[in-house]
Amino acid sequence: MTRLAKIPAGRYLDFALFLALGLFPLTGLLFYTQLLQKYLVFLIFAYSLDLLWGYAGLMDLGHAVLFGMGGYLMALSLSAQNGVPEFMARYGVREVPAWLAAIVPLPAAVLAGILIPALFAGLLGRFLFSSRVGGVFFSVITLALAQVFNLFIQSQQKYTGGFNGIGGLPGLALFGRPLDLVQGYYLVFAVVLLVYAFCRGLTASRFGLVLRGIRENGARLEFLGYDPARFKTAVFMVSGALAGLAGVLYVPVNGMIAPNDVGMEFSTAAIVWLAIGGRGNLTGAALGAMLVNVVGNALSENFGAYWQLLLGAVLLAVVFFAPQGITGALARPARGSGRPKGKGMARRA
Amino acid sequence: MDSFVALLLNGLNSSALILIAALGMVIICGMMNVINLAHGELIMIGAYTAYSVTQVMGRSFFAALPAAFAVTAAAGAVIERLVVKKLAGRPAETMLATFGVSVVLQQMTNILFGAQSKYVAIPIAGKLAFGRVVVPYYNIFTVLLVAAVTAGTVWMLHRTKFGKRVRAITQNREMAECLGIDSSRADTLAFAFGSGLAGLAGALAAPVRSVSPFMGGPYLVNSFMTSVVGGVASFSGTAAGSLLVGESTALLGGVSNDVLANILVFLLIIAAIRFKPEGLFAKERR
Q1: Which of B5, B20, B72, B132 has the fewest CB within 10 Å, making it most exposed?
Q2: Which residues does chain B have within 8 Å of residue A347's beta carbon, measured at their own beta carbons?
Q3: Is residue A343 a part of any domain in this protein?
Protein backbone atom coordinates (compact mmCIF):
# COMPACT_ATOMS: atom_id res chain seq x y z
CA MET A 1 0.00 0.00 0.00
CA THR A 2 2.90 2.35 0.64
CA ARG A 3 3.48 2.57 -3.09
CA LEU A 4 0.01 3.92 -3.54
CA ALA A 5 0.64 6.72 -1.07
CA LYS A 6 1.24 10.06 -2.70
CA ILE A 7 4.32 12.03 -1.95
CA PRO A 8 3.21 15.43 -0.75
CA ALA A 9 6.70 16.85 -1.14
CA GLY A 10 6.65 15.81 -4.77
CA ARG A 11 4.17 18.49 -5.77
CA TYR A 12 6.42 21.22 -4.34
CA LEU A 13 9.41 19.74 -6.13
CA ASP A 14 7.46 19.87 -9.38
CA PHE A 15 6.56 23.50 -8.86
CA ALA A 16 10.11 24.41 -7.89
CA LEU A 17 11.43 22.73 -11.02
CA PHE A 18 8.86 24.45 -13.23
CA LEU A 19 9.59 27.80 -11.61
CA ALA A 20 13.30 27.40 -12.27
CA LEU A 21 12.67 26.28 -15.85
CA GLY A 22 10.19 29.09 -16.40
CA LEU A 23 12.58 31.77 -15.18
CA PHE A 24 15.74 30.44 -16.78
CA PRO A 25 15.53 32.32 -20.13
CA LEU A 26 15.56 35.59 -18.13
CA THR A 27 19.22 34.91 -17.32
CA GLY A 28 19.98 35.57 -20.99
CA LEU A 29 22.25 32.51 -21.25
CA LEU A 30 21.17 31.64 -24.76
CA PHE A 31 23.36 28.56 -25.16
CA TYR A 32 21.94 26.96 -22.04
CA THR A 33 18.42 28.10 -22.87
CA GLN A 34 18.72 26.19 -26.12
CA LEU A 35 20.01 23.15 -24.28
CA LEU A 36 17.23 23.33 -21.68
CA GLN A 37 14.67 23.63 -24.46
CA LYS A 38 15.79 20.22 -25.67
CA TYR A 39 15.58 18.82 -22.13
CA LEU A 40 12.04 20.22 -21.85
CA VAL A 41 11.14 17.99 -24.77
CA PHE A 42 12.79 15.10 -22.92
CA LEU A 43 10.52 15.87 -19.95
CA ILE A 44 7.48 15.05 -22.07
CA PHE A 45 9.16 11.83 -23.13
CA ALA A 46 9.95 11.01 -19.50
CA TYR A 47 6.35 11.64 -18.42
CA SER A 48 5.16 9.42 -21.23
CA LEU A 49 7.40 6.57 -20.08
CA ASP A 50 6.40 7.15 -16.45
CA LEU A 51 2.73 6.63 -17.28
CA LEU A 52 3.62 3.30 -18.80
CA TRP A 53 6.38 2.04 -16.52
CA GLY A 54 5.79 3.90 -13.30
CA TYR A 55 2.00 3.63 -13.16
CA ALA A 56 1.22 0.48 -15.12
CA GLY A 57 4.46 -1.39 -14.42
CA LEU A 58 5.22 -1.93 -18.11
CA MET A 59 8.95 -1.44 -18.65
CA ASP A 60 9.20 -0.37 -22.28
CA LEU A 61 12.80 -0.85 -23.41
CA GLY A 62 11.99 0.52 -26.86
CA HIS A 63 10.05 3.65 -26.03
CA ALA A 64 12.15 5.71 -28.43
CA VAL A 65 10.42 3.90 -31.30
CA LEU A 66 7.21 5.82 -30.53
CA PHE A 67 9.21 9.02 -30.09
CA GLY A 68 10.95 8.33 -33.39
CA MET A 69 7.70 7.81 -35.30
CA GLY A 70 6.51 11.25 -34.28
CA GLY A 71 9.94 12.71 -34.92
CA TYR A 72 10.44 11.24 -38.37
CA LEU A 73 6.93 12.17 -39.52
CA MET A 74 7.60 15.76 -38.43
CA ALA A 75 11.05 15.78 -40.01
CA LEU A 76 9.66 14.47 -43.30
CA SER A 77 6.96 17.09 -43.27
CA LEU A 78 9.40 19.93 -42.51
CA SER A 79 11.86 18.77 -45.16
CA ALA A 80 9.15 18.56 -47.82
CA GLN A 81 7.80 22.08 -47.32
CA ASN A 82 9.41 23.25 -50.58
CA GLY A 83 8.92 20.20 -52.77
CA VAL A 84 10.98 17.02 -52.92
CA PRO A 85 13.60 16.98 -50.14
CA GLU A 86 17.22 16.82 -51.24
CA PHE A 87 17.95 13.41 -49.71
CA MET A 88 15.02 11.92 -51.64
CA ALA A 89 16.00 13.63 -54.88
CA ARG A 90 19.40 11.95 -54.59
CA TYR A 91 17.61 8.61 -54.92
CA GLY A 92 15.70 9.72 -57.99
CA VAL A 93 12.43 10.70 -56.34
CA ARG A 94 10.96 13.33 -58.64
CA GLU A 95 7.58 13.98 -57.08
CA VAL A 96 6.45 14.20 -53.48
CA PRO A 97 4.78 10.82 -52.77
CA ALA A 98 1.10 10.98 -51.88
CA TRP A 99 1.58 9.86 -48.28
CA LEU A 100 4.16 12.56 -47.75
CA ALA A 101 1.99 15.19 -49.43
CA ALA A 102 -0.68 14.35 -46.88
CA ILE A 103 1.53 15.39 -43.98
CA VAL A 104 3.10 18.45 -45.59
CA PRO A 105 0.60 20.80 -43.91
CA LEU A 106 2.13 21.15 -40.44
CA PRO A 107 -1.08 20.59 -38.43
CA ALA A 108 -1.50 17.31 -40.31
CA ALA A 109 2.09 16.37 -39.47
CA VAL A 110 1.59 17.14 -35.79
CA LEU A 111 -1.62 15.13 -35.74
CA ALA A 112 -0.04 12.20 -37.57
CA GLY A 113 3.01 12.38 -35.31
CA ILE A 114 0.76 11.94 -32.29
CA LEU A 115 -1.83 9.53 -33.66
CA ILE A 116 0.35 7.09 -35.58
CA PRO A 117 2.53 6.17 -32.57
CA ALA A 118 -0.65 5.86 -30.50
CA LEU A 119 -2.23 3.55 -33.06
CA PHE A 120 0.94 1.54 -33.37
CA ALA A 121 1.09 1.16 -29.60
CA GLY A 122 -2.56 0.15 -29.57
CA LEU A 123 -1.99 -2.54 -32.18
CA LEU A 124 1.13 -3.89 -30.48
CA GLY A 125 -0.56 -3.74 -27.08
CA ARG A 126 -3.60 -5.62 -28.34
CA PHE A 127 -1.39 -8.44 -29.50
CA LEU A 128 0.94 -8.55 -26.51
CA PHE A 129 -1.32 -7.92 -23.55
CA SER A 130 -4.09 -10.31 -24.52
CA SER A 131 -1.69 -13.22 -24.30
CA ARG A 132 -0.70 -14.74 -20.99
CA VAL A 133 2.90 -13.75 -21.40
CA GLY A 134 4.43 -12.05 -18.39
CA GLY A 135 5.47 -8.43 -18.10
CA VAL A 136 9.12 -9.28 -18.61
CA PHE A 137 8.36 -10.34 -22.16
CA PHE A 138 6.92 -6.92 -22.88
CA SER A 139 10.37 -5.52 -22.14
CA VAL A 140 12.12 -8.10 -24.28
CA ILE A 141 9.77 -7.55 -27.21
CA THR A 142 10.05 -3.77 -27.04
CA LEU A 143 13.83 -4.08 -26.87
CA ALA A 144 13.76 -6.15 -30.05
CA LEU A 145 11.38 -3.61 -31.58
CA ALA A 146 13.86 -0.80 -30.90
CA GLN A 147 16.56 -2.69 -32.75
CA VAL A 148 14.32 -3.62 -35.68
CA PHE A 149 12.94 -0.09 -36.00
CA ASN A 150 16.43 1.40 -35.94
CA LEU A 151 17.53 -1.00 -38.72
CA PHE A 152 14.38 -0.21 -40.67
CA ILE A 153 15.02 3.55 -40.50
CA GLN A 154 18.64 3.08 -41.53
CA SER A 155 17.73 0.86 -44.46
CA GLN A 156 15.12 3.20 -45.95
CA GLN A 157 17.66 5.79 -47.12
CA LYS A 158 15.34 6.97 -49.84
CA TYR A 159 12.74 8.16 -47.34
CA THR A 160 14.57 8.59 -44.03
CA GLY A 161 18.03 9.81 -44.99
CA GLY A 162 19.45 6.51 -43.72
CA PHE A 163 22.32 6.62 -41.25
CA ASN A 164 22.71 10.40 -41.49
CA GLY A 165 19.08 11.08 -40.68
CA ILE A 166 17.22 14.20 -41.76
CA GLY A 167 18.90 17.49 -40.94
CA GLY A 168 18.93 21.19 -41.72
CA LEU A 169 15.33 21.60 -40.60
CA PRO A 170 13.67 24.92 -39.71
CA GLY A 171 12.98 25.79 -36.08
CA LEU A 172 9.70 26.20 -34.26
CA ALA A 173 7.00 28.35 -35.81
CA LEU A 174 3.51 29.34 -34.79
CA PHE A 175 0.84 30.10 -37.42
CA GLY A 176 3.52 30.32 -40.08
CA ARG A 177 5.61 32.85 -38.14
CA PRO A 178 9.08 31.62 -37.07
CA LEU A 179 9.76 31.97 -33.34
CA ASP A 180 13.02 33.16 -31.82
CA LEU A 181 14.77 31.05 -29.20
CA VAL A 182 13.06 32.46 -26.11
CA GLN A 183 9.62 32.39 -27.72
CA GLY A 184 10.22 28.83 -28.84
CA TYR A 185 11.39 27.94 -25.35
CA TYR A 186 8.15 29.20 -23.84
CA LEU A 187 6.09 27.40 -26.46
CA VAL A 188 7.73 24.08 -25.53
CA PHE A 189 7.43 25.00 -21.84
CA ALA A 190 3.71 25.59 -22.23
CA VAL A 191 3.31 22.18 -23.86
CA VAL A 192 5.25 20.62 -20.99
CA LEU A 193 2.91 22.23 -18.47
CA LEU A 194 -0.12 20.99 -20.38
CA VAL A 195 1.28 17.48 -20.57
CA TYR A 196 2.08 17.59 -16.85
CA ALA A 197 -1.45 18.72 -15.99
CA PHE A 198 -2.86 16.01 -18.26
CA CYS A 199 -0.72 13.31 -16.64
CA ARG A 200 -1.63 14.53 -13.14
CA GLY A 201 -5.31 14.42 -13.98
CA LEU A 202 -5.06 11.04 -15.66
CA THR A 203 -3.13 9.39 -12.84
CA ALA A 204 -5.44 10.83 -10.18
CA SER A 205 -8.51 9.57 -12.02
CA ARG A 206 -10.14 6.17 -11.67
CA PHE A 207 -8.21 5.09 -14.75
CA GLY A 208 -4.94 5.84 -12.98
CA LEU A 209 -6.09 4.00 -9.90
CA VAL A 210 -6.94 0.91 -11.95
CA LEU A 211 -3.53 1.08 -13.60
CA ARG A 212 -1.77 1.09 -10.27
CA GLY A 213 -4.00 -1.76 -9.17
CA ILE A 214 -2.95 -3.77 -12.22
CA ARG A 215 0.69 -3.00 -11.49
CA GLU A 216 0.35 -4.24 -7.92
CA ASN A 217 -1.91 -7.23 -8.53
CA GLY A 218 -3.36 -7.86 -11.97
CA ALA A 219 -5.24 -11.00 -10.98
CA ARG A 220 -7.13 -9.20 -8.21
CA LEU A 221 -8.23 -6.46 -10.61
CA GLU A 222 -9.45 -9.16 -12.95
CA PHE A 223 -11.61 -10.61 -10.16
CA LEU A 224 -13.03 -7.16 -9.60
CA GLY A 225 -14.24 -7.17 -13.18
CA TYR A 226 -11.56 -5.05 -14.86
CA ASP A 227 -9.85 -6.35 -17.97
CA PRO A 228 -6.13 -5.64 -17.42
CA ALA A 229 -5.33 -6.12 -21.11
CA ARG A 230 -7.65 -3.29 -22.16
CA PHE A 231 -6.28 -0.91 -19.55
CA LYS A 232 -2.71 -1.75 -20.44
CA THR A 233 -3.43 -1.22 -24.13
CA ALA A 234 -5.12 2.09 -23.35
CA VAL A 235 -2.22 3.43 -21.30
CA PHE A 236 0.23 2.22 -23.94
CA MET A 237 -1.72 4.27 -26.51
CA VAL A 238 -1.76 7.39 -24.33
CA SER A 239 1.92 6.95 -23.62
CA GLY A 240 2.56 6.45 -27.33
CA ALA A 241 0.70 9.65 -28.18
CA LEU A 242 2.78 11.64 -25.68
CA ALA A 243 6.03 10.04 -26.87
CA GLY A 244 5.03 10.94 -30.43
CA LEU A 245 4.31 14.52 -29.31
CA ALA A 246 7.78 14.69 -27.77
CA GLY A 247 9.23 13.49 -31.06
CA VAL A 248 7.22 16.06 -33.01
CA LEU A 249 8.61 18.86 -30.82
CA TYR A 250 12.13 17.45 -30.75
CA VAL A 251 12.67 17.82 -34.49
CA PRO A 252 12.26 21.60 -34.84
CA VAL A 253 13.99 22.15 -31.49
CA ASN A 254 16.98 19.99 -32.39
CA GLY A 255 17.05 20.82 -36.12
CA MET A 256 17.59 17.20 -37.07
CA ILE A 257 16.74 13.59 -36.29
CA ALA A 258 18.91 10.52 -36.78
CA PRO A 259 18.55 6.76 -36.24
CA ASN A 260 20.35 7.09 -32.88
CA ASP A 261 17.36 9.04 -31.57
CA VAL A 262 14.95 6.20 -32.22
CA GLY A 263 16.78 3.02 -31.20
CA MET A 264 17.96 1.21 -28.11
CA GLU A 265 20.30 4.00 -27.09
CA PHE A 266 17.68 6.67 -26.48
CA SER A 267 15.16 4.16 -25.14
CA THR A 268 17.53 2.95 -22.47
CA ALA A 269 18.58 6.52 -21.69
CA ALA A 270 15.00 7.29 -20.68
CA ILE A 271 14.90 4.09 -18.61
CA VAL A 272 17.95 5.37 -16.74
CA TRP A 273 16.32 8.79 -16.07
CA LEU A 274 13.32 7.12 -14.49
CA ALA A 275 15.32 4.53 -12.60
CA ILE A 276 17.42 7.27 -11.02
CA GLY A 277 14.68 9.83 -10.52
CA GLY A 278 11.99 7.43 -9.35
CA ARG A 279 8.81 6.13 -10.93
CA GLY A 280 5.09 6.38 -10.50
CA ASN A 281 4.85 9.98 -9.25
CA LEU A 282 5.81 12.14 -12.30
CA THR A 283 8.20 14.10 -10.08
CA GLY A 284 10.90 11.47 -10.31
CA ALA A 285 10.65 11.32 -14.10
CA ALA A 286 11.20 15.08 -14.38
CA LEU A 287 13.93 15.12 -11.75
CA GLY A 288 15.78 12.18 -13.28
CA ALA A 289 15.56 13.50 -16.84
CA MET A 290 16.84 16.94 -15.82
CA LEU A 291 19.54 15.68 -13.48
CA VAL A 292 21.01 13.06 -15.80
CA ASN A 293 20.98 15.36 -18.81
CA VAL A 294 22.34 18.46 -17.07
CA VAL A 295 25.11 16.56 -15.25
CA GLY A 296 25.75 14.46 -18.32
CA ASN A 297 26.14 17.53 -20.49
CA ALA A 298 28.63 19.02 -18.04
CA LEU A 299 30.68 15.85 -17.75
CA SER A 300 30.42 14.06 -21.07
CA GLU A 301 32.35 16.71 -22.99
CA ASN A 302 35.55 16.01 -21.08
CA PHE A 303 34.96 12.58 -19.61
CA GLY A 304 32.72 10.85 -22.19
CA ALA A 305 33.40 7.19 -21.43
CA TYR A 306 33.92 7.80 -17.71
CA TRP A 307 30.57 9.59 -17.46
CA GLN A 308 28.82 6.64 -19.07
CA LEU A 309 30.70 4.30 -16.74
CA LEU A 310 29.60 6.37 -13.77
CA LEU A 311 26.01 6.32 -15.03
CA GLY A 312 26.08 2.53 -15.23
CA ALA A 313 27.49 2.32 -11.71
CA VAL A 314 24.90 4.79 -10.40
CA LEU A 315 22.16 2.71 -12.01
CA LEU A 316 23.44 -0.39 -10.22
CA ALA A 317 23.66 1.48 -6.93
CA VAL A 318 20.11 2.80 -7.35
CA VAL A 319 18.73 -0.70 -7.95
CA PHE A 320 20.35 -1.97 -4.76
CA PHE A 321 20.09 0.97 -2.39
CA ALA A 322 17.16 3.06 -3.64
CA PRO A 323 14.96 0.87 -5.83
CA GLN A 324 12.34 3.61 -6.03
CA GLY A 325 14.87 6.19 -7.15
CA ILE A 326 15.49 9.62 -5.66
CA THR A 327 11.84 10.46 -5.04
CA GLY A 328 11.30 7.06 -3.42
CA ALA A 329 14.26 7.61 -1.12
CA LEU A 330 13.03 11.12 -0.25
CA ALA A 331 9.55 9.92 0.51
CA ARG A 332 10.40 7.10 2.88
CA PRO A 333 13.80 7.69 4.42
CA ALA A 334 12.87 5.76 7.55
CA ARG A 335 12.15 2.59 5.61
CA GLY A 336 15.66 2.32 4.27
CA SER A 337 15.92 0.77 0.86
CA GLY A 338 12.18 0.15 0.86
CA ARG A 339 12.61 -3.26 -0.65
CA PRO A 340 9.23 -4.81 -1.29
CA LYS A 341 8.33 -7.86 0.69
CA GLY A 342 7.36 -10.75 -1.51
CA LYS A 343 7.33 -14.45 -1.50
CA GLY A 344 9.76 -14.28 -4.38
CA MET A 345 12.45 -13.29 -1.91
CA ALA A 346 12.39 -16.69 -0.30
CA ARG A 347 12.62 -18.48 -3.61
CA ARG A 348 16.33 -18.20 -3.97
CA ALA A 349 18.46 -17.82 -0.91
CA MET B 1 20.54 -22.58 -58.27
CA ASP B 2 24.19 -22.33 -57.28
CA SER B 3 23.64 -18.97 -55.68
CA PHE B 4 20.67 -20.39 -53.79
CA VAL B 5 22.85 -23.18 -52.39
CA ALA B 6 25.50 -20.62 -51.52
CA LEU B 7 22.94 -18.50 -49.66
CA LEU B 8 21.66 -21.59 -47.89
CA LEU B 9 25.15 -22.56 -46.73
CA ASN B 10 25.83 -18.97 -45.70
CA GLY B 11 22.61 -19.05 -43.72
CA LEU B 12 23.71 -22.26 -42.03
CA ASN B 13 26.83 -20.48 -40.84
CA SER B 14 24.92 -17.50 -39.42
CA SER B 15 22.42 -19.93 -37.88
CA ALA B 16 25.30 -21.63 -36.08
CA LEU B 17 26.57 -18.31 -34.72
CA ILE B 18 23.05 -17.33 -33.63
CA LEU B 19 22.50 -20.73 -32.03
CA ILE B 20 25.62 -20.60 -29.91
CA ALA B 21 24.88 -17.03 -28.85
CA ALA B 22 21.37 -18.10 -27.85
CA LEU B 23 22.42 -21.34 -26.09
CA GLY B 24 23.69 -19.49 -23.06
CA MET B 25 20.49 -17.45 -23.06
CA VAL B 26 18.43 -20.65 -22.93
CA ILE B 27 20.23 -21.75 -19.78
CA ILE B 28 20.22 -18.33 -18.08
CA CYS B 29 16.83 -17.04 -19.20
CA GLY B 30 14.92 -20.20 -20.06
CA MET B 31 16.03 -22.46 -17.25
CA MET B 32 17.04 -20.06 -14.49
CA ASN B 33 14.44 -17.44 -15.34
CA VAL B 34 16.87 -14.53 -15.27
CA ILE B 35 16.57 -11.86 -17.95
CA ASN B 36 20.19 -10.89 -18.42
CA LEU B 37 20.51 -7.68 -20.41
CA ALA B 38 24.30 -8.01 -20.20
CA HIS B 39 24.24 -11.13 -22.39
CA GLY B 40 25.52 -9.16 -25.38
CA GLU B 41 28.40 -7.85 -23.31
CA LEU B 42 29.33 -11.40 -22.27
CA ILE B 43 29.59 -12.16 -25.98
CA MET B 44 31.71 -9.03 -26.34
CA ILE B 45 34.03 -10.21 -23.56
CA GLY B 46 34.50 -13.49 -25.42
CA ALA B 47 35.32 -11.62 -28.62
CA TYR B 48 37.83 -9.37 -26.85
CA THR B 49 39.42 -12.40 -25.19
CA ALA B 50 39.87 -13.92 -28.65
CA TYR B 51 41.35 -10.63 -29.85
CA SER B 52 43.72 -10.41 -26.89
CA VAL B 53 44.90 -13.99 -27.13
CA THR B 54 45.46 -14.02 -30.89
CA GLN B 55 46.43 -10.46 -31.80
CA VAL B 56 48.01 -9.13 -28.60
CA MET B 57 49.57 -12.27 -27.12
CA GLY B 58 50.13 -13.88 -30.49
CA ARG B 59 48.80 -17.30 -29.54
CA SER B 60 46.71 -19.63 -31.65
CA PHE B 61 42.99 -19.06 -32.16
CA PHE B 62 42.37 -22.57 -30.87
CA ALA B 63 43.82 -21.55 -27.53
CA ALA B 64 41.59 -18.47 -27.62
CA LEU B 65 38.38 -20.51 -27.73
CA PRO B 66 38.75 -22.21 -24.31
CA ALA B 67 40.24 -18.98 -22.93
CA ALA B 68 37.15 -17.05 -24.05
CA PHE B 69 34.92 -19.64 -22.41
CA ALA B 70 36.89 -19.50 -19.15
CA VAL B 71 37.17 -15.69 -18.93
CA THR B 72 33.49 -15.14 -19.70
CA ALA B 73 32.40 -17.90 -17.35
CA ALA B 74 34.39 -16.23 -14.58
CA ALA B 75 32.80 -12.87 -15.41
CA GLY B 76 29.40 -14.54 -15.38
CA ALA B 77 30.04 -16.10 -11.99
CA VAL B 78 30.98 -12.70 -10.58
CA ILE B 79 27.86 -11.07 -12.05
CA GLU B 80 25.67 -13.84 -10.65
CA ARG B 81 27.20 -13.64 -7.17
CA LEU B 82 27.28 -9.86 -6.88
CA VAL B 83 24.15 -8.82 -8.74
CA VAL B 84 21.72 -11.47 -9.96
CA LYS B 85 21.56 -13.58 -6.81
CA LYS B 86 20.82 -10.54 -4.65
CA LEU B 87 17.81 -9.65 -6.80
CA ALA B 88 16.31 -13.13 -7.05
CA GLY B 89 12.57 -13.17 -7.62
CA ARG B 90 12.50 -9.54 -8.77
CA PRO B 91 12.68 -9.68 -12.57
CA ALA B 92 12.25 -5.95 -13.23
CA GLU B 93 15.08 -5.03 -10.87
CA THR B 94 17.24 -7.78 -12.33
CA MET B 95 16.74 -6.34 -15.79
CA LEU B 96 17.68 -2.85 -14.61
CA ALA B 97 20.73 -4.07 -12.73
CA THR B 98 21.99 -6.23 -15.58
CA PHE B 99 21.48 -3.27 -17.88
CA GLY B 100 23.70 -1.30 -15.49
CA VAL B 101 26.25 -4.11 -15.70
CA SER B 102 26.14 -3.99 -19.49
CA VAL B 103 26.83 -0.24 -19.51
CA VAL B 104 29.72 -0.68 -17.09
CA LEU B 105 31.24 -3.52 -19.16
CA GLN B 106 30.86 -1.55 -22.41
CA GLN B 107 32.54 1.52 -21.01
CA MET B 108 35.32 -0.40 -19.29
CA THR B 109 36.11 -2.07 -22.61
CA ASN B 110 35.85 1.29 -24.32
CA ILE B 111 38.36 2.79 -21.88
CA LEU B 112 40.74 -0.21 -21.99
CA PHE B 113 40.70 -1.00 -25.72
CA GLY B 114 39.33 2.15 -27.36
CA ALA B 115 36.14 2.58 -29.34
CA GLN B 116 37.42 1.54 -32.77
CA SER B 117 36.73 -1.95 -34.09
CA LYS B 118 39.32 -4.69 -33.67
CA TYR B 119 39.95 -7.45 -36.15
CA VAL B 120 40.81 -11.08 -35.56
CA ALA B 121 42.46 -12.97 -38.41
CA ILE B 122 40.53 -15.93 -39.81
CA PRO B 123 42.32 -18.92 -38.26
CA ILE B 124 41.64 -21.48 -41.00
CA ALA B 125 42.36 -20.19 -44.46
CA GLY B 126 41.13 -21.77 -47.62
CA LYS B 127 37.83 -22.69 -49.14
CA LEU B 128 36.05 -25.77 -50.25
CA ALA B 129 34.72 -25.39 -53.80
CA PHE B 130 31.91 -27.34 -55.45
CA GLY B 131 31.69 -25.82 -58.86
CA ARG B 132 30.70 -22.24 -58.21
CA VAL B 133 29.62 -22.81 -54.61
CA VAL B 134 32.48 -21.86 -52.32
CA VAL B 135 32.50 -22.60 -48.60
CA PRO B 136 35.30 -21.26 -46.39
CA TYR B 137 36.81 -23.95 -44.17
CA TYR B 138 36.26 -21.70 -41.17
CA ASN B 139 32.48 -21.79 -41.74
CA ILE B 140 32.55 -25.58 -41.78
CA PHE B 141 34.59 -25.55 -38.58
CA THR B 142 32.09 -23.14 -36.96
CA VAL B 143 29.07 -25.25 -37.83
CA LEU B 144 30.72 -28.47 -36.65
CA LEU B 145 31.96 -26.92 -33.42
CA VAL B 146 28.56 -25.39 -32.63
CA ALA B 147 26.88 -28.74 -33.28
CA ALA B 148 29.35 -30.44 -30.97
CA VAL B 149 28.98 -27.81 -28.22
CA THR B 150 25.18 -27.99 -28.42
CA ALA B 151 25.24 -31.77 -28.20
CA GLY B 152 27.72 -31.55 -25.34
CA THR B 153 25.51 -29.07 -23.46
CA VAL B 154 22.43 -31.26 -23.86
CA TRP B 155 24.45 -34.30 -22.77
CA MET B 156 25.78 -32.43 -19.75
CA LEU B 157 22.35 -31.29 -18.64
CA HIS B 158 20.85 -34.74 -18.94
CA ARG B 159 23.66 -37.10 -17.99
CA THR B 160 25.94 -35.40 -15.48
CA LYS B 161 25.24 -34.86 -11.81
CA PHE B 162 25.59 -31.09 -12.21
CA GLY B 163 23.16 -31.02 -15.13
CA LYS B 164 20.61 -33.10 -13.30
CA ARG B 165 20.83 -30.80 -10.31
CA VAL B 166 20.31 -27.74 -12.46
CA ARG B 167 17.28 -29.31 -14.10
CA ALA B 168 15.90 -30.37 -10.74
CA ILE B 169 16.18 -26.78 -9.51
CA THR B 170 14.49 -25.56 -12.66
CA GLN B 171 11.55 -27.84 -12.06
CA ASN B 172 11.09 -27.33 -8.35
CA ARG B 173 13.56 -25.29 -6.37
CA GLU B 174 12.20 -25.96 -2.87
CA MET B 175 11.98 -29.70 -3.46
CA ALA B 176 15.51 -29.79 -4.87
CA GLU B 177 16.76 -27.94 -1.81
CA CYS B 178 14.97 -30.39 0.46
CA LEU B 179 16.85 -33.19 -1.26
CA GLY B 180 20.11 -31.57 -0.27
CA ILE B 181 21.04 -29.75 -3.47
CA ASP B 182 22.98 -26.55 -2.85
CA SER B 183 20.82 -24.44 -5.15
CA SER B 184 22.81 -21.27 -4.65
CA ARG B 185 26.02 -22.94 -5.84
CA ALA B 186 24.22 -24.62 -8.74
CA ASP B 187 22.78 -21.22 -9.76
CA THR B 188 26.23 -19.68 -9.90
CA LEU B 189 27.67 -22.60 -11.85
CA ALA B 190 24.79 -22.66 -14.32
CA PHE B 191 25.03 -18.90 -14.85
CA ALA B 192 28.78 -19.23 -15.34
CA PHE B 193 28.28 -22.05 -17.83
CA GLY B 194 25.69 -20.06 -19.80
CA SER B 195 28.02 -17.07 -19.77
CA GLY B 196 30.90 -19.22 -20.96
CA LEU B 197 28.81 -20.33 -23.94
CA ALA B 198 28.15 -16.66 -24.71
CA GLY B 199 31.89 -16.00 -24.56
CA LEU B 200 32.54 -18.90 -26.92
CA ALA B 201 30.00 -17.38 -29.30
CA GLY B 202 31.86 -14.07 -29.19
CA ALA B 203 35.19 -15.74 -29.88
CA LEU B 204 33.77 -17.76 -32.79
CA ALA B 205 32.16 -14.66 -34.27
CA ALA B 206 35.25 -12.48 -33.82
CA PRO B 207 37.08 -13.47 -37.04
CA VAL B 208 34.02 -12.91 -39.24
CA ARG B 209 32.28 -10.00 -37.49
CA SER B 210 33.69 -6.77 -36.13
CA VAL B 211 34.76 -6.58 -32.49
CA SER B 212 33.87 -3.36 -30.68
CA PRO B 213 32.74 -2.28 -27.19
CA PHE B 214 29.20 -1.72 -28.46
CA MET B 215 28.81 -4.91 -30.48
CA GLY B 216 26.61 -6.58 -27.84
CA GLY B 217 23.20 -5.05 -28.53
CA PRO B 218 22.33 -6.87 -31.75
CA TYR B 219 23.54 -10.18 -30.29
CA LEU B 220 21.36 -9.65 -27.23
CA VAL B 221 18.29 -8.96 -29.34
CA ASN B 222 18.98 -11.84 -31.73
CA SER B 223 19.46 -14.25 -28.84
CA PHE B 224 16.21 -13.09 -27.27
CA MET B 225 14.30 -13.37 -30.52
CA THR B 226 15.70 -16.81 -31.24
CA SER B 227 14.95 -18.20 -27.83
CA VAL B 228 11.45 -16.68 -27.77
CA VAL B 229 10.63 -18.14 -31.19
CA GLY B 230 12.00 -21.50 -30.16
CA GLY B 231 10.45 -21.59 -26.72
CA VAL B 232 12.72 -20.26 -24.02
CA ALA B 233 13.39 -23.52 -22.24
CA SER B 234 13.99 -25.91 -25.11
CA PHE B 235 17.27 -26.66 -26.87
CA SER B 236 15.76 -28.27 -29.94
CA GLY B 237 13.39 -25.32 -30.18
CA THR B 238 16.29 -22.90 -29.98
CA ALA B 239 18.16 -24.85 -32.65
CA ALA B 240 15.10 -24.67 -34.91
CA GLY B 241 14.62 -21.00 -34.03
CA SER B 242 18.21 -20.12 -34.91
CA LEU B 243 17.93 -21.99 -38.20
CA LEU B 244 14.79 -20.00 -38.95
CA VAL B 245 16.38 -16.66 -38.06
CA GLY B 246 19.72 -17.39 -39.74
CA GLU B 247 18.33 -18.87 -42.95
CA SER B 248 15.59 -16.31 -43.40
CA THR B 249 18.10 -13.50 -42.87
CA ALA B 250 20.48 -15.03 -45.39
CA LEU B 251 17.88 -15.94 -48.02
CA LEU B 252 15.94 -12.68 -47.82
CA GLY B 253 19.25 -10.84 -47.62
CA GLY B 254 20.11 -12.45 -50.96
CA VAL B 255 16.98 -11.24 -52.73
CA SER B 256 16.37 -7.87 -51.08
CA ASN B 257 17.92 -6.75 -47.79
CA ASP B 258 18.23 -8.49 -44.48
CA VAL B 259 16.30 -5.77 -42.63
CA LEU B 260 13.21 -7.28 -44.19
CA ALA B 261 14.15 -10.60 -42.61
CA ASN B 262 14.59 -8.90 -39.26
CA ILE B 263 11.15 -7.34 -39.52
CA LEU B 264 9.58 -10.65 -40.57
CA VAL B 265 11.19 -12.49 -37.68
CA PHE B 266 9.98 -9.79 -35.33
CA LEU B 267 6.40 -10.07 -36.61
CA LEU B 268 6.65 -13.83 -36.30
CA ILE B 269 7.66 -13.39 -32.67
CA ILE B 270 4.73 -11.11 -31.94
CA ALA B 271 2.42 -13.67 -33.52
CA ALA B 272 4.16 -16.48 -31.64
CA ILE B 273 3.75 -14.70 -28.33
CA ARG B 274 0.11 -14.05 -29.06
CA PHE B 275 -0.89 -17.50 -30.23
CA LYS B 276 1.77 -19.86 -28.96
CA PRO B 277 3.45 -18.24 -25.97
CA GLU B 278 5.40 -21.38 -25.16
CA GLY B 279 7.32 -21.05 -28.43
CA LEU B 280 6.72 -22.24 -31.97
CA PHE B 281 8.65 -25.46 -31.56
CA ALA B 282 7.92 -26.30 -27.95
CA LYS B 283 6.17 -29.51 -27.08
CA GLU B 284 2.70 -29.42 -25.58
CA ARG B 285 2.79 -28.74 -21.89
CA ARG B 286 1.97 -31.56 -19.60
Answers
A1: B132
A2: 88-89, 173
A3: no
